[in-house]
Specification:
By secondary structure, this protein is α/β, with parallel strands linked by helices. It folds into two domains: 144 residues, Aspartate Aminotransferase, domain 1 (Alpha-Beta Complex); 241 residues, Aspartate Aminotransferase, domain 2 (3-Layer(aba) Sandwich), CATH 3.40.640. Helices cover 39% and strands 14% of the residues. The protein is built from 14 helices and 13 strands. It has a seven-stranded mixed beta sheet with strand order 2-8-7-6-5-3-4. Helix 5 links the parallel strand 3 and strand 4. The protein is globular and about 65 Å long. The chain starts with a helix and ends in a 5-residue tail after the last helix.
Amino acid sequence: MLDVARVRGLFPTLCDGFVHLDGPAGSLVPESVAHAVGATMRVPIGNTGGVFPSSVRAGQLRDGARLAMADLVGGDPDGVVLGPNMTTLTYVLSRALAKTWQRGDEIIVSRLDHDANIRPWEQAAAAVGARVRWAEIDIETCELPEWQYDELINERTRLVAVTAASNAVGTRPDVRAIADRAHAAGALMYVDAVHAAPHVPLDTVELGADFIAVSAYKWCGPHVGAVVAAPGVLEGLQPDKLLPSPDSVPDRFETGTPPFELFAGVVAAVEHIAGLTGEYDGDRRKRVLVAMAAVEEYERRLMTRLEQGLRAMPHVTMLGAPARRTPTVSLTVAGMSPRQVTEELARHRICAWDGDYYARELMDALGVSEIGGAVRLGLAHYTAANEVEHTLSVFADLRTRS
């Protein structure tokens, strides 16, 4: 069970008096993560590969971050590729994978996804003459029907890219059902779990993901991303790299000198998640799963209240109604632009985003791009029930302005 009062006490960043519903763009950071990063910068850190203590320490920080990322998603630490963010890493992987494609091969992307899981694949495919095929959404529900993949996937399919949860409307498609279809045809599965990771337990094997991408700053960590894959899958890929840099896996995918101090923050962020239910003993992977199950249940209750309250307001139009979702909604308000709405929310000390949140294909499909996109509200494990009530009260008052 999640003791939200205790959890909120871990975040000095909540002292600004704002309701932070902007988590889908980046979460708040608890004191433990800030302390881990700061403390690491107060000791000597070299680069990896040396025999002296500060170099050894750097290697330990990198290895610790890989293990933490693996514990978060249920992967192998030897298959964890670290980088600045999911977008950068997906470009690295797309270029490496494209070297194995031929003219006439096919790649499948979806309208539901963040552009970081669309454009790198589209551009890589264009470079080698591969064809991109699109999985479409149901514009009424914002669901991504898995049955359409029966027609999309064939013997020429090389990769299927899909999100584990929409960063815009929260939809959680049936990733495993899609993965089973992809694997039956011999295709690889690339899953963007950036938005799913802060809200639900993740298991790479259960999802059927050959690659799973996450970004720590979405779940209370620093700006570090990771793509996790089986080491054997990475062994078969040759990314562009400098000649003297390591050729081992996963090192060959990591370019330049990394931010070692932020790796300490990654470990602290995963420890933060693992300790959300107040348990600090035992296997970290198991504690992560227990904690994230508690987070999912807590956020589900808050989301039910938020969604029911908003849907009862005639001046508010919700985008979609997916059956399985994260606590994330996008909406429009009659008579007001999305920017006007977020300005009004900010005046009432509520942080929320407007625009397309890089889900451009989704917003185009829903027909809201021409009005400036939509307003997005995202709950987190540090969101309090009274903050939801305050938000609903402010939205109710917007009726007099619309």
